[in-house]
Amino acid sequence: MVQAVLYDLDGVILDSRDLVATTLTSVAASALGDAPDAEAVGRVLSLPPVEALAALGVPDAAQAFDDGFDAAYAIHAHQARLVPGVVSGMRRLRAAGLRLGLVTLQRRHRLAMLPLQEVLDLFDVTVAFEDAAPKPAPDGVLGALGLLGVPPAQAWFIGDSPTDIAAGRAAGVTAAGASWGYYAAETLWEAWADPILYDPGQITTILLPDGDTVCATIAAHTVSPHAT
Fold it and tell me: Do the bridges between strand 174-178 and strand 155-159 make them parallel or antiparallel, or are there none, so unpaired?
């Protein structure tokens, strides 16, 4: 029986594409003297910021990140949007007695910049970048479960990237792929996400089934690409 659901942040709970694109463009423009091509920025959105800046041609990407990323991020944080249906689903899970946690590569001070207060209040535990070895290491997932007192076999981790799925699988939880995030379902399939979800509403449909409909619900609403 599932007792806890852990979530990644960017791409799963928060649609941060516009925010990240604008922030990277601003930092790169300051370093290069000209804004990078929008298509080029779009191709690097899923990379860690320093790697993304380097891919955009910023000579000293780490220094440019240190000098300007947080300031630009704070200015444009209003561009981030909650993914529709996520918060209502989390409230339903909590009302049913499940424990909730956040495992993110965001630093804690950036969480305070984002429009997340109604979401952060729903979490029993938050594991940020400073708190554990970064994904794909399982440390953050295992640390969150340790604080919750829930064994991995009774937990889900919902992520939208191959590193999320790798972390979840290494931790021994059900590693569900959120295909509405930064990576397509095919990429999550290749990372062995199971199940793959196509809509946030499917989380509660699966975990809060109505009696005998559980088997039909899972078959109708998820893809388990590696089942034999």
Answer: parallel
4-7/155-159 β-pairing: parallel
> 101 and 74 share a domain?
no
- pLDDT means per 10 residues, the chain with 228 residues, are 97 97 98 96 95 97 97 97 95 97 96 92 97 97 98 98 98 98 96 96 91 38 49
Instruction: Give me the CATH number covering residue 93.
Output: 3.40.50.1000
Q: Whose structure tokens read 């998820």?
A: 222
> Comparing C-alpha atoms, which of 79, 81, 102 is closest to residue 90?
102
Same domain, 68 and 94: no
Instruction: List CB contacts of 1: < 8 A, sequence separation 6 or more.
Output: 154
DSSP element (H, E) containing 217: helix 214-221
- Cα–Cα dist 127/105, whole Å: 8
| Count of the separate structural domains present in the chain | 2
Say if residue 208 is exposed, middle or buried (CB neighbours under 10 Å; 0-12, 13-18, 19+).
middle
In the beta sheet, which residues pair with residue 176?
158
Cβ-count burial 65-100 (b if 16+ within 10 Å, e if not): beebbbebbeebbebbebbeebbebbeebeeeebbb
Instruction: Please tell me the predicted confidence (pLDDT) of residue 92.
Output: 97
Q: What pLDDT is stored for residue 209 in this prediction? A: 79
195 prior amide bond cis, ω within 30: yes
Which of 79, 105, 133 lies at the terminal end of a domain, its last residue?
79
